[in-house]
Amino acid sequence: MPRFAGRCRQLSEARATNLWLAAGSVIVQQQAIRDHDQAMRNYFVGTHRRPSWRKAGRDEGFRIVHVKPSDVRRLSRKMGEVRIPKAGWVRFRWSRQVPQDVKSFRVTMDRAGRWHVAFAAEPDPIPGPGNGERVGIDRGVAVSAALSNGELLSCPRLAGQEQQRLRRLERRLARAKRGSERRKRVKRALARLKARDADIRKDWCEKTSTSLACRFDVIRVEDLKIGCMTRSAKGTATEPGRNVRQKAGLNREIMRSGWGLLVRRLSDKAPGRVEKVNPAYTSQRCSGAGTSQRAVARAKPCSAAWLAVTRWTLT
Asked: Which residue(s) pair with 106 in the sheet?
């Protein structure tokens, strides 16, 4: 297979002979070739899996490069517009200030049918407060993040009525016939509800990570392998797993708690100040206090149990 430059030359030849291909933006098509070329390189290096065929409705979008300052303009306090090749000016909701040195942006559509535009920019890290305070974070399911200073942070979820509606839609989707219009309507309604749940979780992770980065100089978390922890337990046909439904429920709760997103955003906002601790022996029972280190969420601050529990996060 030729590399990126060779495939771009093939693209130019194909655009000259196919009018339907020439009707699209050459920038979008070249960036799709670049993404595939990078994915294949990652596969041969061994860091990623082999790229598969794109699935309709998932990861819909395209990237535009070589953006000029005149391609983005603000219309009002809440609205702006961006110039997209072959489409013209497209309005979007102005949620934050667009950097002046932005060079590219990506337009995506999620499963709920909402279109988003994201401008590529590297924000400045949040400076440390300089007070010398350190904190340890223990991530859990009942309590999303338990801090060593006694704070318990829980990721908000959907309301009770929304959770009931989510279960009803899932049952209705299981009964709908594949390829029917009814199934499409149910999938869209289910996608909108799950998108709301994801928005709530992302908002909590952003606000919590910003608060922690502004309050503490050193932040320590367990170096958890979340991908391995949320792996399915169904096994194979010859060696089926045990407690598959219980493990699936635990996996869902771990993913809903936003473990990985919280640590990733902390590392982005406070680079060099986030330390990952080996999780080995952090859950063993303390012989002196008679409790496990996971009991940090239940121990009273300044008690003997609390000091024994939080010693690993502060030293």
From this structure: 63, 118
Instruction: Give the pLDDT confidence of 230-269 residue by residue, as tens digits.
Output: 888 888 888 888 889 899 999 999 999 999 999 999 999 9
Of the candidates 64, 110, 52, the one whose C-alpha atom is nearest the C-alpha of residue 88 is 64
CA 15 to chain centre: 36
Question: What is the tally of structural domains in the chain?
Answer: 2
Residue 287 confidence (pLDDT) = 61
pLDDT value for 285: 60
For residues 149 and 297, what is the distance between their CA atoms, to the nearest angstrom? 10
Confirm whether 236 is domain-assigned.
Answer: yes
Q: Are residues 156 and 251 in the same domain?
A: yes
E-strand stretches of the chain: 60-65, 72-74, 79-84, 88-93, 104-109, 115-119, 134-139, 145-147, 152-153, 218-222, 274-277
Could you tell me the pLDDT band of residue 84, with boundaries at 50, 70 and 90? very high
Tokens of residue 46, six digits: 């061994």
Residue 168 and residue 41 share a domain: no
d(CA 295, CA 305): 8
Q: Per residue, what are the HEC states of 111-124?
A: CCCCEEEEECCCCC
Provide the domain limits for residue 168: 134-279
pLDDT tens sequence across 21-41: 999 999 999 999 999 999 999
pTM over 0.85: no
- Chain-centroid distance of CA 206 in Å reads 11
Q: Which of 36, 52, 68 is the last residue of a domain?
A: 52
